Amino acid sequence: MSAPVPPRPPRPGDDPWLPSTRPALPRPALPPDLGRRAKGLGWLAVQGVLGFVAVLVLLLVFGILLALGWDPAGWLIGITLILAFLGVARTAIQGRRLLTPAPEVPLAQAGPEDDEARLLRLLRSGERALPPAARPAFHAAIISTRDALRLTSGDEALGRDAFDARQAAREDLPELLHTYQAAPRTPDAERLLLNQLDLIGRRMGEVVHERRGQHTRTLEAQRRYLESKYGEGEERE
């Protein structure tokens, strides 16, 4: 087994996942589909207002006709009230759906893209929650885990490398950040955080180093095969 390779601390500009050099302003975590839901609620409110105005006008017109002695207007008033009730029920159901956040993908069904999206959200939240001294180690562990996820995403069987990468993305790193946020801010807590981040980063660095070495050896073997296959033909000519 190759020697452990510690992850390189990230530098601004060499990876699109790295945070901006500007200080991050604290902001509440918003659901990813907030814009779509807000737009839907706005359009639903417009429909509700227009429907209310239309029903009010129809009831007024039919009421006048009924007062003038036109008997079918009573039936039309009843039909209008039934339609208004159905419209209110439909609006309430759609509003409830829009106010309910979309369910998260279960971890057992999560794919590489879901794991990367979860890691990216974790990176952004860590930028605001962690002290400046711990951010480089946190960034390095996140980036190493992301690279390990990408390099093991094509594995047909769930081996040790793929399992460790998924565990780090789905459980270890989120739980570590949550535990640190819940603990008192002391030097010991920061030291323990850095130690655990270093452990995760080193393991992910080993996975990345080993997988990249495998890819390099595969390409080298293919190069030798092609040289032996086509090089001999050139020599015969």
Automatic annotation (TrEMBL):
Bias kind Low complexity: ranges: 15-24
UniProt-annotated stretches for the region Disordered: 1-31
Protein keywords: Membrane, Transmembrane, Transmembrane helix
Ranges annotated as biased composition (Pro residues): 1-10
Transmembrane found in the keyword field: yes
Membrane-spanning ranges: 41-67, 73-93
Name the UniProt record assigns to this protein: Uncharacterized protein
Lineage: Bacteria, Thermotogati, Deinococcota, Deinococci, Deinococcales
